[in-house]
Specification:
The protein is of the alpha/beta class. The protein folds into 2 domains: about 140 residues, ATPase, nucleotide binding domain (Nucleotidyltransferase, domain 5, 2-Layer Sandwich); about 170 residues, 2-Layer Sandwich (Nucleotidyltransferase, domain 5), CATH 3.30.420. Helices cover about 40% and strands about 20% of the residues. The radius of gyration is 20 Å and the shape is globular. The structure holds zinc ion (ZN).
């Protein structure tokens, strides 16, 4: 195929895929600019990983019926080893054993495939496209949403570890024996700073005789990140106290990580950070709980809000390895 065959838009030639617990999204990505083009979606099957991988392959083929892609990057919600093997995916039914996804999909699609943890893919996108962070060789990206996830870049490369657990910052202990985490353990960062943990604590406070705006605003439905912002604006003391616990826990872990790993750049993103904005980041930097050698060691800033960051990061991983 010549460039002319591709018409007026010869690039990009990389596909990024976001494999989530409920949906699969595939897009063409230009790894240099992060620009996305085209879009195919599918519902994630609940009948086991073999069907899920078939659905991923079908989604890629629907986006690329002529087989033009140089390589495909896939972001998955699980532990990933060496850009290839997905150890397990807690929120995909039946995926409780290691599968060499790169080998399987590579054979099915007839082109190279690289796999990354979805949060790590977000960190890679931020590292490549996030302004001054893009020039940094060291970066910790922390995403505070329903849970808390992270991605670590050292010496300019994503670090994943022998079990794919690098960046699992949400399950770092901040308070031994403390609040219950979604993983079943106690005292993890996510139990204090993640939206689900904040909801759990807000409802416990209400049940213990401390009524609060979070429970009032959400009623019986899920407490959303926007409820956090609104309750804070309306002067809810319980909300302020819960968010102070959240920023203290984040400050403790971020400061310790920066000290341990000599990190100069930390970016914060995710639904909770998007809604609470710069004051939330400032509160972390000013926290008396800031760990290690203190906040002067590293610059904290808001992540650039990249659309489909996971898809973009997955494609960048593919371009880095096979471009
Ligand atoms: Zn946990």
């Amino acid at each position: 195929m010549t460039l002319a065959d591709r018409g007026a838009d010869p690039a990009p030639a990389f596909i990024g895929v976001d494999l989530g617990g409920t949906k699969i999204l595939a897009r063409w990505i230009d790894p240099a600019s992060g620009r996305a083009r085209g879009r195919h979606k599918a519902v994630t099957p609940t009948t086991g990983p073999a069907d899920v991988l078939d659905a991923v392959a079908d989604t890629v083929r629907a986006l690329d019926p002529d087989g033009r892609a140089v390589a495909v990057g896939v972001g998955v919600p699980g532990f990933v080893i060496d850009g290839r093997v997905v150890v397990r995916c807690a929120n995909i039914a039946g995926w409780d054993h290691p599968i060499d996804v790169a080998e399987h999909l590579g054979a099915v699609l007839g082109r190279p495939v690289v796999v990354g943890n979805d949060v790590n893919c977000g960190a890679v996108a931020e590292h490549h496209l996030g302004g001054d962070a893009a020039t940094a060789d060291d970066l910790l990206a922390v995403f505070v949403g329903t849970g808390v996830g992270g991605g670590l870049i050292l010496d300019g490369r994503l670090v994943t570890g022998p079990r794919g657990m690098v960046g699992e910052i949400g399950h770092v202990t901040t308070t031994p024996g403390g609040a219950l985490c979604g993983c079943g353990c106690r005292g993890h960062l996510e139990a204090y700073a993640g939206r689900a943990g904040l909801e759990r604590r807000a409802r416990e406070a209400a049940a213990a005789g401390r009524p609060n705006k979070l429970v009032d605003l959400a009623g019986p439905s899920t407490i959303k990140s926007r409820h956090l912002a609104r309750a804070l604006e309306e002067g809810c003391e319980v909300t302020a106290s819960l968010l102070a616990d959240a920023t203290d826990a984040l400050a403790l872990v971020i400061g310790n990580a920066a000290t341990l790993l000599d990190l100069r750049h930390v970016v914060l993103g995710g639904g909770v950070v998007d809604k609470l904005g710069q004051p939330f980041v400032d509160q972390i930097a000013a926290s008396p709980s800031f760990g290690g050698l203190g906040p002067d060691l590293c610059a904290l800033r808001l992540a650039r809000r990249l659309d489909d960051a996971g898809v973009v990061g997955a494609a960048i991983l593919a371009a880095d390895r096979f471009g």
